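Async update (no meeting this week)

Hi team, since we skipped the sync, here's where things stand on the single-chain job. The sequence we agreed to prioritize is pasted below, unchanged from the tracker. I ran it this morning and attached the output directly underneath so nobody has to dig for it. Comments welcome in thread, and please keep replies under the output.
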Amino acid sequence: MKVKIIRLSDHQEVVARIDFPKGIPLPSITDGWKFNFKSHSKKRGLITYILVCEDTPNKIEGCIIFQLKDAIEPYMAYIEIAPHNKGEKKHFDRVAGCLIAYACRLSFIHGKGPYKGWLTFDVLEEDKQDEIKLMAVYCKKYGAQKFGDTTMVISPEAGENLINKYLN
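Output:
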C-alpha cells in the first residue's frame, strides 16, 4: 500500500509503501532498534510489515508486527520507527501514524465478530515514566484509549479517522 510521509529536511511529501519485507533483512537490536524484528517475525501467527520509501526501498523507516489473537482479535504486537526517525534529527515524520493506521485497516479486514475494527496493543517500557509518556502520545495523537494497566485500544471510529488521515 502506498502512503505519504514527510521528509523533514525540506518538508516535502515522499511516497512510501507498506508491504511485506520481501528479501529485505529485518532490523534487530544489533542495528540500534529496540525490538528484534528478525526474531519476532519468525513466530507463528505473526505477520510483519515494513514501511520503506520508494526511492530507498532497502532502507526500513518503520516496522510493525500484526497478529490475530485467538484467530479473532486484531493485535498490534510490535511497532517501531527506525532509530534515524526518532528525536530532533529524525529524517521522516508520519511513519508511526501510517503504520498504526495500517494496523487499524487490518483490524477491519481480519477482525471477527465484536473485534472487527478494534485494534488492541500493549505499551511496555522498562521505565514506568516512559510508558506513561508513550501512552499519552497514543491517546492524544492516535485516539487510543487506555484499557487496563498497559493495554490500549483504538476504536473503529478512531481507526477510521487514522485510516483517512494517513492512508488516503
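Quick observations from my side:
Residues 4 and 119 are 22 Å apart (CA to CA).
The chain has one domain: 2-167.
Reply here if anything looks off.
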